[in-house]
Design a protein that fits this description.
Strand content: over 45%
Structural class: alpha/beta
Number of helices: 2
Helix content: 10-25%
Number of domains: 1
Strand order of the largest sheet: 1-3-4-5-2
Largest sheet: 5 strands, mixed
Length: 81
């Protein structure tokens, strides 16, 4: 799923996700000041093939992927393209 939204930097996107989802551990890779406009969301244990297809989206800047290891313990990775 590709999500266009108003431009913001990667640092604020990650901070907002962490806060809203009550995430304790989050790995963010990339320039925190990158202005992001196009994000793909591939939640759960969707597998490498779905992540790879998402990374092939034209002009994609960030891939959000992750899963809940156990109830209430969300782990999210943000990957910059």
């Amino acid at each position: 799923m590709c999500l266009p939204f108003p431009k913001r930097d990667l640092e604020h996107l990650a901070s907002d996700l962490k806060s809203r989802l009550k995430i304790h551990v989050m790995r963010v890779v990339g320039d925190p000041k990158l202005q992001v406009r196009k994000v793909a969301l591939v939640p759960g244990a969707s597998g490498f093939a779905k992540e790879t297809r998402a990374l092939e989206i034209s002009d994609l800047q960030v891939l959000i992927t992750g899963e809940a290891a156990r109830m209430g313990d969300h782990r999210i990775r943000l990957r910059m393209r």
